[in-house]
């Protein structure tokens, strides 16, 4: 099975050991062949609390940690200037 990695931006880190990451993906519409931007929110496990709002992070799919948490934070690619 292939490892699923995604790059996104942290939107919220108010919860304990958890942050919300938004991932923007581009796709093509099946019928009209037009480029569409898709935005999806992922609940990510962050045990080290090293991410803050606005950071660009790398996340990886893992075993279910809770009901909605199936992604873990791998590393912070770029810190935010805020």
Walkthrough of the structure:
With 82 residues, the chain is mostly beta strands. The chain has no helices and 5 strands. The protein has strands at 5-12, 18-28, 35-45, 56-61, 71-78. A 5-stranded mixed beta barrel has the order 1-2-3-5-4.
What structural class do you assign from the helix and strand content? mainly beta
General form: globular
Strand content: over 45%
Radius of gyration: 14 Å
Beta-strand segment tally = 5
The helix fraction, in percent, is under 10%
The biggest sheet amounts to:
5 strands, mixed, barrel
Report mean pLDDT, rounded to a whole number. 94
Topology order in helix (H) and strand (E) letters: EEEEE
How is the quaternary structure best described?
Answer: single chain
Spatial sequence of strands, sheet with the most strands: 1-2-3-5-4
Uncertain spans: none
SS field, number of helical segments? 0
First-last Cα distance: 38 Å
Question: What is this structure's SSE topology?
Answer:
Blueprint: E1 5-12, E2 18-28, E3 35-45, E4 56-61, E5 71-78
Parallel strand pairs: 3-5
Antiparallel strand pairs: 1-2, 1-4, 2-3, 4-5
